[in-house]
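Let us work through a complete example step by step.
Step 1: write down the sequence.
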Amino acid sequence: MRQFLASLYFGKLVYTILYALSGLYLLSFWFESLFVISTGLLIIFIGILLIEMFRLFNGKKFMAERILTEKFSNSDANTVELHFDNNYAFPIYLEIIDEIPEQFQKRDFLKVLLIEAKSNRDYNYILTPLKRGVYKFGYLNCYISTKSKLVKRRYRFENEAEVKVYPSFIQMRALDFLSIDQKMSQYGMKKIRKIGHTMEFEQIKNYVIGDDIRTINWKATAKHNSLMVNQYQDEKSQPIYNIIDVGRVMKMPFEGLSLLDYSINSSLAFSNIALKKKDKVGMLTFADSIENFVPANSKKTHLNTLLETLYGISTNFLVSDFNRLYAHSKRKITQRSLLMLYTNFEHITSLKRQLPYLRALAKSHLLVVIFFENTELDEIATRSTTKLTEIYEKTIAQEFIYNKQLMVKELERNGIQTVLTKPKDLSVNTINKYLEIKARGLI
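Step 2: predict the structure and record it as tokens.
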């Protein structure tokens, strides 16, 4: 019996070994077949890859160009145009990575386009700068591939360029229509020259009864052997000065743009309107000293002079000296002028410290003080509150807003014109104030 069982056990063992060996043989055969198939597929893939590489790298058949305007407009949407030429005989997928200026802090610029065979395509994108100055563009990187997208070829175009960001000339053009002011004729207003007007020579004419004998031109009388008089008319070109405070109070930002840049953009737009109204426009900046003084002029080319001067303005973070401003104005601005003073006061005590100098300026000139509402405080003052800390914040915000209104009344009580405005509405409100002054004949 034992021998029978041992032989039976041995037979099962042999059977198991033979079965395992046959399984290994079949598995090895399957692996061998799989290896052959995978090798074949790999060869096919490498073949396709080589064909794709040959198609993409066979000559330089792709061109790209970045087209920039000569200058950008600060705080406005500026268009950058990209032009692409596909000279391949097949469509390509294009990935664009443009190295835009570091001031935008944008490092994820990526756009994918499809360009058909033997064709070209344009793509435009928008940049909105918030600071004046020089902006440097880097390389224009283009990655092209076929529809399979197995291979990409990089084209790097050394299209480096610099663009200067100027004060907002786009805003200036948008407000150009305000120079066509028909309100006075619509309401029957009559232009009247007030105190401080000046006279300019018009022509020499024959004397008639009623002419002022003080205007007799004796040289012309001797030449013509009859009484000749000089004829004058009210001078239409009135001097106007944009005075911009570049002290530390003007560095405060609202919606990404500083009060200084809001003032610069407004000065350019306002100067354009005033020049179209045939007035003379000048400017100066001040903080602890007087800088960038440009005498008033009415020439058509004068706007470019003002634009270049405004482009180079920067703040020095110092306290503004209104006494120095008054002393300089007394020496350099001798004719009665309209002074548009861009500054900011956050509390009525700061205004009262400068009020003696503002009153002194207003005695010799028509002074308009332009300062700003704090729009962030407006939001706090109008929101609903439930917590004690929020109530404190709302009360303080309302007090600051009330202080601004007190400043307006204090300035008007001292005979000083005012414009209290939100930063984004500065240009429109300043121009409207100027048109109002013109309509009332105050200059």
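Step 3: interpret the result. Confidence is low (pLDDT under 50) at residues 2-10, 182-198.
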